[in-house]
Design brief:
single chain; 122 residues; alpha+beta; Translation Initiation Factor IF3; four-stranded mixed sheet; two-stranded antiparallel sheet; 2 helices; 21% strand; flat
């Protein structure tokens, strides 16, 4: 299945300027209007509210849906936790960024090992 993702460019029209803060429009790149991006992978995004408690379910879901990637938010994986990333890495390549302080938070990315050019080096 092939998807076309439209590119949206917005212009901020706020009239209030903060003193000492200037915009730098020279670093904006506008793609040509004829640009068409085709995505040939299947994936998803899920706010899992604790991958720690759902590691088996997450990998089973990604496998059952034949997902090439699954982005996770609110993983709640702490920097000290090595068991959850190991469980999620059994059938997929998994990378995560824990929340540095406090409770909850964190993001993760599950990638299919069948897409070598997308898989992360471990």
């Amino acid at each position: 299945m092939c998807f076309q993702i439209p590119t949206l460019i917005s212009c901020n029209t706020r009239r209030h300027w903060h003193q000492g803060r200037n915009r730098n429009p020279s670093n904006l790149l506008y793609p040509p209007s004829s640009l068409s991006i085709q995505v040939l992978v299947h994936g998803g995004l899920w706010n899992c509210h604790s991958a720690v408690l759902k590691a088996d379910f997450i990998t089973a879901l990604a496998s059952a849906q034949s997902l090439d990637f699954l982005a996770l938010t609110e993983t709640w994986i702490t920097p000290e936790n090595s068991a959850t990333p190991a469980a999620l890495s059994s059938a997929f390549a998994f990378s995560h960024s824990p929340r540095p302080t406090g409770r909850g938070g964190g993001t993760g990315l599950l990638l299919s090992r069948f897409i070598p050019h997308l898989s992360m080096s471990q």
